[in-house]
Design a protein that fits this description.
- This protein has helices at 9-12, 39-51, 85-92, 94-117, 136-151, 164-170, 190-203, 267-273, 322-335, 381-397, 421-443, 448-457; strands at 28-29, 32-35, 57-60, 76-78, 129-133, 160-163, 178-182, 185-187, 207-209, 214-218, 221-224, 227-230, 233-236, 253-261, 280-283, 289-293, 299-303, 347-355, 362-366, 371-375.
- With 459 residues, it is α/β, with parallel strands linked by helices.
- The strands form five sheets. The chain has a six-stranded mixed β-sheet, with helices on one face.
- It binds flavin-adenine dinucleotide (FAD).
- Flavin-adenine dinucleotide binds at residues 35-41, 60-63, 67-70, 72-76, 78, 213-214, 237-241, 244-245, 257, 259, 290, 302, 350-351, 353, 375, 377, 379-383, 385.
């Protein structure tokens, strides 16, 4: 496969040429310059242009719109936020934490509404998420999660416990003992969403320049080899690629998530597996896995577990890690033995996401410098980036709103440690969590080390 199609199953099958848009022709003036044409950059452009069509908004993208995580992800448009509700409540108080979570709930509906209004056919299906509990340790975590959510103001309408029968009725995986269900998630085709969004912002007058790498970001300017975009506001929307920008190496750490997709499965297989509402699915293990039933009847399944690369390096060959692909196939086969001993896979890919040192996502604008940013979503950026886009649009236009009062706005995460500490900590954490999953699978008891590590991370 040539060009950009090999980057993910989603990009591979798009019914459109992935020809780059024209690059920046030379120096230019704008009201807002946005660096990065993933969901964050494009949602920001969208809400700015919608609120004020006179604004001159320029988006600069090193490759093509959707090149990054936005064109490669698991397609969970969820209300998940990298900081848990209890942790948010500890930091910001119960009311503000709940406001944040409610804003995330609303965001799922907002993405669906805008996609429909803009004619973005992204295989949207709001079937919620079922998170299975397989084994006693996972069941304990499921119960604790629901209890905590309810203590902090959510109800069964937001997150509820499922017994074994209810969980298996939604997702009939092996060894299901129960689970949790939230309606606040939709399965989407991520690349159709990001590519459709790029067209939607262009229709509203935003200029997108592709194959235009920004080499420096400074107050009033985004600098490229082809010219400088001078703008009073410059937005950094580069998520996992941020460490490649001068002066920003330790802002987020790029962590790789990898995925595989099966061929379209026969109806008899789906009758055994379930996911009739296209619920996104996972289980309560530590090293996250996630899946969706795609609109064309495949299982798209991913997980963390790839190593963090020294010095926050991001390279195309890191997208492919045969060991992790093999582990994903194994995990899929364990979940659904109906797939057979050798789970068929047609596509395998991956990409970097962004993790801040305190695991906290943030969106903000420094009024003194005009530099704005959003990111650090960990693996929850499909929904969160929309909230970021709406929030940045308000901040940039100087509008005070419920969104700009949310606790993540203006939050400054500490920088990551210099190497080799960063490398040691990231990969040690991964080892602890992977070994906890293996131990729990064997002993059915929760791993104390993993619990301690989760507490240390402040989740
Ligand atoms: C495999 C995988 C699965 C995931 N699954 C899910 C999921 O199911 N649900 C969920 O909510 N989240 C998921 N995520 C995370 C989610 O995809 C991201 O949080 C989200 O896409 C981030 O969007 P973004 O626009 O901030 O960043 P990106 O989509 O990464 O976009 C950043 C853009 O900036 C461009 N860029 C970088 N540097 C420069 C530069 N110097 N000059 C110009 N342009 C530049 C890049 O080319 C890229 O297009 C997943 C991520 C991965 C990798």
């Amino acid at each position: 496969m040539t060009g950009y199609r090999h980057l993910s199953y989603w990009l591979s099958g798009l019914d459109e040429p992935l020809t780059p848009r024209p690059g920046l022709p030379g120096d230019t003036d704008a009201d807002v310059a946005i660096v990065g044409a993933g969901y964050t950059g494009l949602w920001t452009a969208y809400y700015l242009a919608r609120a004020d069509p006179t604004l001159r908004v320029v988006v600069l993208e090193r490759e093509i719109a959707g090149y990054g995580a936005s064109g490669r992800n698991g397609g969970w448009c969820s209300a998940l936020f990298p900081t848990s509700l209890p942790a948010l409540a500890r930091r910001h108080g119960r009311d503000r934490a709940l406001a944040m979570q409610r804003a995330m709930h609303d965001t799922v509906g907002e993405v669906g509404r805008v996609a429909a209004a803009e004619g973005i056919d992204c295989d949207w299906r709001a079937g919620g998420t079922v998170t299975l509990a397989r084994g006693e340790a996972q069941l304990q975590r499921a119960r604790a999660e629901v209890a905590q959510a309810h203590v902090h103001g959510l109800t069964d309408d937001d997150l509820r416990l499922l017994d074994a029968g209810e969980a298996a009725a939604r997702c009939n995986a092996e060894g299901v003992r129960g689970g949790t269900y939230t309606p606040h998630c939709a399965a989407v085709h991520p690349a159709k969403l990001v590519r459709g969004l790029a067209r939607a912002v262009e229709r509203r007058g935003v200029r997108i320049h592709e194959r235009t790498a920004v080499t420096a970001l400074r107050p009033g300017a985004a600098v490229t080899a082809a010219g400088v975009v001078r703008a009073p506001v410059v937005v950094r929307a580069t998520e996992g690629y941020t460490p490649g920008l001068p002066g920003r190496r330790r802002v987020v750490a790029p962590v790789y998530s990898l995925m595989v997709a099966t061929p379209p499965l026969p109806e008899e297989t789906w009758a055994r597996i379930g996911l009739a509402q296209r619920e996104t699915f996972s289980d309560h293990r530590h090293v996250i896995v996630y899946g969706q039933r795609t609109a064309d009847g495949r299982l798209a399944f991913g997980g963390r577990g790839a190593p963090y690369h020294y010095a926050s390096r991001v390279r195309p060959d890191f997208d492919r890690e045969p060991r992790v692909f093999a582990a994903l196939r194994r995990a899929l086969g364990e979940l659904f033995p109906v797939l057979g001993p050798d789970v068929p896979v047609t596509h395998a890919w991956g990409g970097p996401l962004g993790v801040a040192r305190d695991w906290a996502a943030s969106a903000g604008l420094d009024r003194r410098t005009g530099l704005a940013w959003a990111g650090g979503y960990v693996g929850d950026g499909v929904g969160t980036s929309n909230l970021a886009g709406r929030t940045l649009a308000d901040l940039i236009r100087g509008v005070e709103s419920d969104l700009t009062a949310l606790p993540w706005v203006g939050h400054r995460s500490p920088r990551w440690e210099p190497e080799p500490l960063r490398w040691l900590a990231m990969n040690a954490g991964l080892k602890i969590m992977s070994s906890a999953d293996r131990t729990e699978h064997r002993t059915h008891r929760p791993s104390r080390r993993a619990e301690a590590f989760t507490r240390y991370l402040g989740h």
